[in-house]
TrEMBL record:
Keywords: CBS domain, Cell membrane, Magnesium, Membrane, Metal-binding, Transmembrane, Transmembrane helix, Transport. Coiled coil: none annotated. This is Magnesium transporter MgtE. One of its GO terms (cellular component) is plasma membrane. It is found in: Cell membrane; Membrane. Belongs to the SLC41A transporter family. It holds the Pfam family MgtE_N. GO terms for molecular function: magnesium ion transmembrane transporter activity; metal ion binding. The keyword Magnesium applies. Homodimer. It comes from the Bacteria.
């Protein structure tokens, strides 16, 4: 996207906002006329909830459907609250079953049943299938609309099935092959079907299937789909019978959602689930205040440590000068380790059972970093203060970096082992914990060397 295009969109969005506020609906309609779906999505993401509803009502029906499908589920929920029941019913029915479930998860509990009752029987049944699985499972995100074939069918017969299912199937590029018990026996690609002669039986074309249980964590299944480079991943029940399919675009959507959550929690905030400019101020405050209160309580531990060692500080006041340096270095070292290991967990590079291997690696990494920083601290502090002070700073940096890297590396794995989001135990909590332990290490070393 060029800078000129961004400037044009920013100006247009500002003008649309002003015209909506002044009730110049003719001017708004003129400005949004001819805009692409992606441009209109960008406009809607930057308007307030009421402004968004006004703009949405001015769109042509087909374009309104396209824009609605492209919006984040949280913004769809806002529109559902703002539009008339007849408009909502039409929009809701136009969504695929898996997309409906994303929206239903955002809606108030009292609204969801009303929307489901308004669906045609067939669509309500498909949506109910997806809703029946736990929220964190891939069954909740799969599509129950697919085309299948049988090992004994021919390529031409399967292509006929594909043609008949084009209007409702989520994808036809990867086709599950089911045996007589509806168990997944293999998969066949549309490319191989079209390249084969019409008489070729599917048993000769199908390949070994990769599939996931419907109760598997959604992020794990999406990661498997992406890592294996699959266009679609069959989703099965405990008896390997097909119940749905996960397409690569839905897998990417799940991974982006999880990445957003992890990034937010590593920064000490709750995920917004909607674009920043369309998030109400109260929601921004609510996403941050709880974490700030928790971290503020945790920070009182640092105050308590300083109070315990108050006599040490009074005896050698120069020690106070290095407190920010030491706790800052420890916090940064712990955060680096936590971020690296959390990312490795997300990518599947490490598992909870690798905790001892990670522990050993981070002890060595932290010790190496501590030696480098400790030598630098000793070299800088000694000429300006004294040899004992320089030695205290140097040894403290070695110890703090070792402890911080170890804690930062192990804590995400421990969280994962007890089924807690590793991002929750990442940067904010690790910084608070390392600050406290770092100060204790600092004063213990100082008392031993300086004989206080």
């Amino acid at each position: 996207m060029t800078a000129d295009f961004r400037d044009d969109m920013t100006g247009a969005i500002h003008t649309i906002s002003q015209q909506v506020n002044s009730r110049d609906l003719t001017g708004v309609a003129r400005l949004i006329a001819g805009r692409t779906t992606s441009e209109l999505v960008d406009v809607c993401e930057r308007l307030t909830e009421k402004q968004r509803a006004v703009v949405f009502r001015l769109l042509a029906k087909q374009q309104a459907l396209e824009v609605f499908e492209a919006l984040a589920p949280a913004l769809q929920s806002d529109l559902v609250s703002a539009l008339r029941d007849s408009d909502v019913a039409s929009l809701f029915a136009s969504l695929d079953p898996d997309d409906r479930v994303w929206l239903l998860d955002e809606l108030p509990a009292a609204v969801a049943p009303r929307l489901l009752r308004g669906l045609p029987d067939r669509e309500r049944e498909l949506t109910a299938v997806v809703l029946g699985y736990p929220k964190a499972s891939i069954g909740r995100r799969m599509s129950p609309q697919y085309v299948t074939t049988h090992p004994d069918l021919s390529a031409s017969q399967t292509l006929a099935r594909v043609s008949a299912g084009l209007d409702h199937a989520e994808t036809v590029y990867t086709i599950p092959v089911l045996d007589d018990g509806r168990r997944v026996a293999g998969v066949v690609s549309l490319r191989d079907l079209m390249a084969a002669s019409g008489e070729t039986v599917i048993a000769e074309l199908m390949s070994q299937p990769h599939f996931s249980l419907a109760t598997t964590d959604a992020e794990d299944a999406a990661r498997a789909c992406a890592d294996l480079g699959l266009l679609a991943l069959p989703i099965v029940d405990s008896e390997s019978r097909l119940v749905g399919i996960l397409t690569i675009d839905d897998a990417v959507r799940i991974l982006e959602h999880e990445e957003t959550e992890d990034s937010a929690r590593q920064g000490g905030v709750e995920p917004l689930r909607r674009p920043y400019l369309s998030t109400p101020i109260r929601s921004l405050v609510r996403s941050r205040v709880l974490w700030l209160l928790v971290l503020a309580v945790g920070a009182t531990l640092t105050v308590q440590v300083l109070e315990v060692f108050e006599e040490t500080l009074n005896a050698v006041t120069v020690l106070a000068l290095f407190v920010p340096l030491l706790i800052g270095t420890g916090g940064n070292t712990g955060n680096q380790a936590a971020t690296t290991v959390t990312r490795a967990l997300a990518l599947g590079d490490v598992r909870s059972r690798d905790i001892l291997r990670v522990l050993g690696r981070e002890v060595r990494v932290g010790f190496s970093l501590g030696l480098l920083l400790g030598a630098l601290g000793f070299a800088v502090a000694t000429p300006f203060y004294s040899m004992p002070i320089g030695l205290t700073i140097g040894l403290t940096l070695v110890a703090v970096c070792t402890v911080a890297a170890t804690i930062g590396g192990v804590m995400p794995l421990a969280a994962h082992a007890i089924r807690v989001d590793p991002a929750v135990f990442s940067n904010p909590f690790i910084s608070t914990f390392v600050d406290t332990t770092g100060l204790i290490i600092y004063f213990v070393i100082a008392m031993a060397i300086l004989q206080i």
